[in-house]
Amino acid sequence: MKTRLYTKDVKLVLAASFFFLMSPMLVNPIIAGFSSNVGANSVLAGVVAGMMNLTSLVLRPLAGNLTDRFSKYRLTMIGGILILIACVGYGLTTSVPLIMVWRVVNGLGYTLCTVCMSTWMASLLPADRIGAGMGIYGIANALGMAIGPAVSVYLYHHFGYRSVFWVAAICVTLLLIIIQFVGNRSVPHPDYRKSKAQQPKFRLVQPKVIPVAVILLLFSLPYFATQTYIVSYVEHRGFAIPAGAFFPVYALVLLAMRLLLRDAFDRIPFGKFFWVCLGCNLIGIIGLTDMTNWLMLAVGAVGLAAGYGLMFSICQAKSLTLVPKSDRGLANSTFYIGIDLGMTLGPMLAGVITTYLPWVWLYPMMAITLPLLVVVYWRNRRKLA
Questions:
Q1: Packing angle between helix 310-321 and helix 130-159, nearest 10 degrees?
Q2: How far is 257 from 312, CA to CA, in rounded Å?
Q3: Alpha carbon of 86 to those of 33, 105, 373: distances in Å?
Q4: Distance in angstroms (rounded) separating the CA atoms of residues 49 and 30
Q5: CA triplet 305, 307, 312: central angle to 5 degrees?
Q6: Among 68, 148, 49, 62, CA closest to 112
Q7: Could you point out which of 125, 172, 253, 267 has its C-alpha 20 to 30 Å from the C-alpha of 140?
Q8: How much is the pTM?
Q9: In the chain, which stretches have pLDDT less than 70?
Q10: Cβ distance 277 to 310 under 8 Å?
Q11: Tens digit of pLDDT for each residue in 48-88?
């Protein structure tokens, strides 16, 4: 008999995570344009846009250690308040240096909330439903990532930049309100206090999760390269399709797959998912290489959704089951380091490829990630079994 998954606390944390992710997803698409509008040149605007992710990457280990030491509710509150301060700051700022300050504040709040909320969610789930629960958590995040940018662009075109910041502030305010009703505040696990004397005071990563983070990093590189360069890629290749159509197709397919396969995450071994998702990433790369029509665009979107998109939830659930409960915060932060590196290195790698090679070589060169994935998995297959 299956244990109950959708408790009141789980539903509240799911709702809170949706509104949390809506906030940065509203701000990110327009922050570079807003910076240019108040005086930044194109290079500086790009630096401003990337400062949140850079801050997040640097502070992940700190967030992981804090999550295992303090109440997830308290840290999520602090993170939410920092994001709220940043959103209000954007709305009242006309200075590029101040925008950079708010991006750092936003990055600190974003880091705390991503690690704390996913760990909080895991602590509310029964041991035999972690895969299913984190799959549903991934759906809430995917909805925020899909809806946020669309709402952001609409608000900007109809009401201007600052309207986006006020709506982002409202979303994070809803996060702060919703978590007040969660009964389980997720205080540090008792095992942590018992083993505290045996562990270093501060650890950068959880070693058991490093192979999973590397696997997800390699899966993510083609996706994040696509996220940044698909418009330029379609223009340079002369394809007669709207580049923006890729993301709605990707989001819809990913939502459907995560919903249909949520229970399979707990039943099917990691290795089987790995090989299936690896093949799907290959199919996605093939579709994007020859995106001459809507069918090939759909093949590319479905392939990456069934590859990287599914592996995100699978790897997050695997990270949490590889470690004791007392280390789940550090495990989550190590997992997110893989994503942060993918978001950073994917566009950089694509930029290098398209600088020195014709655009037609972008995705064939990205396919190098596939044999690298096989090597990483094969060397760690016993640990991940």
A1: 130
A2: 12
A3: 17, 6, 38
A4: 9
A5: 85
A6: 62
A7: 267
A8: 0.76
A9: 1-5, 42, 189-203, 228, 262, 265-266
A10: yes
A11: 877 887 888 788 878 777 877 888 889 999 999 999 999 99
CB 224 within 8 A of CB 342: yes
The answer to whether residues 89 and 105 touch, using CB atoms and an 8 Å cutoff, is yes
Interatomic CA distance for residues 180 and 152, integer angstroms: 27
Q: Which residues lie below 8 Å from residue 36, measured CB to CB, with a gap of 6+?
A: 42, 45
| Side chain identity, residue 291 | M
Cα-trace Rg, the chain:
20
Amino acid sitting at position 175: L
Residue 160's CB: how many other CB atoms inside 10 A?
A: 13
Residue type, 118: S
Report CA 349 to chain centroid distance, whole Å. Answer: 19
Angstrom distance (rounded) from CA 289 to CA 363:
6
Rounded Cα–Cα distance for residues 140 and 256 (Å): 12
Amino acid at 36: S
* Three-state SS annotation for 185-214: CCCCCHHHHHHHHHCCCCCCCCHHHHHHHH
Positive or negative: CA dihedral 223, 224, 229, 230 = positive
Asked if 20 and 175 touch (Cβ cutoff 8 Å), the reply is yes
- Contact call for residues 222 and 369 (beta carbons, < 8 A): yes
Most distant pair of Cα atoms in the chain: their distance: 63
In single-letter form, the type of residue at position 341 comes to: L
**Amino acid type, 333:** S
Backbone φ and ψ for 59, nearest 5 degrees, come out as: -95, 0
Residues comprising the chain, all counted: 385
Return the amino acid letter for 137.
Y
Up-side HSE of residue 50: CA atoms within 13 Å toward CB?
15
CA separation, residue 45 to residues 27, 76, 105, 116, 351 (Å): 14, 29, 17, 30, 17
- Helices 72-92 and 96-123: crossing angle, nearest 10°? 160
pLDDT in tens, 98-117: 999 999 999 999 988 888 88
- Cα separation, 229 vs 354, in Å, equals 10
Kindly state the helix (H) or strand (E) to which residue 75 belongs, with its residue range. helix 72-92
3-class secondary-structure state, position 182: coil
